[in-house]
Amino acid sequence: MKRTLSVAIYLLLLATALPLQGQIVAERKVRFGSILDGDTVPYYHLKEVNILESASLLSDLEIRKNQKLIRNVKKMLPYAKIGKQRLDQLEREVAQLPKKQRKEAIKAAEKTLLADYSDELKDCTISQGKVLLKLIDRETGRTSYVLVNELRGKLRAGVYQTFARLFGYNLKASYDPKHNKEDNLIERIVLSVERGKL
């Protein structure tokens, strides 16, 4: 009886200890891996994870001191995220179009965007507009000037920049939370909002 039990355990261990070279069969799926020092180490592709210090979120004192900026970021963040989604969709749609059709598609997208959001955004304050420009840069990785230049041309971008400067905006200002204190505060507010602290 002991011999039969030990043979069964040996066969079970042998069956699990001899996977295919470079592959592991688990849950009826083939997983790739490698053998290191006799042990099989599987490869798994994991999603990127941001590890943040607790200091990157806002403290209670900072929340009390920056109520206006927090309110502005919370109001403008959804528009920046919508803008990013629409931009990605537009870029996919016009990627293979000829130049003339591309311009028409961009103009049509601009009209749709203005029709959908101009009433809501025209009531925004100057400080909310500045926050929106920063958040658009944060979401897209490109300044508003660069976006207008890519989509509508250098002349239009120059006209928009001149007009924006009259109201205290700078479309060429980039979002830099590592070196700019205000951008760092905006980044920390966004992280706090996304993690449900605000």
Please characterize this protein's 3D structure.
This protein is mainly α. The chain folds into 2 domains: 2-42, no CATH class; 54-194, no CATH class. Helices cover 63% and strands 8% of the residues. It has 8 helices and 3 strands. It has helices at residues 2-17, 60-65, 67-94, 99-121, 126-140, 144-152, 154-166, 181-194; strands at 23-26, 29-36, 39-42. It has a 3-stranded antiparallel β-sheet with strand order 1-2-3, with no helix packed on it. Strand 2 and strand 3 (39-42) form a beta hairpin. Helix 3 (67-94) packs across helix 5 (126-140) and helix 3 (67-94) crosses helix 8 (181-194). The termini are far apart. The mean pLDDT is 79.
What's a quick, concise take on this entry?
The chain is mainly α. Helices cover 63% and strands 8% of the residues.
- In whole angstroms, the N-to-C terminal distance is 66 Å
Overall pLDDT: 79
The stretches of 5 or more residues where confidence is low (pLDDT under 50) are: none
**Spatial shape:** extended
Supply the number of structural domains.
2
The class by helix and strand makeup works out as mainly alpha
The main β sheet shows up as: 3 strands, antiparallel
Number of H/I helices: 8
Count of individual beta strands: 3
Report Rg. Answer: 27 Å
Residue share in helices?
55-70%
Order of helices and strands: HEEEHHHHHHH
Strand content: 5-15%
Give the strand line-up of the largest sheet. Answer: 1-2-3
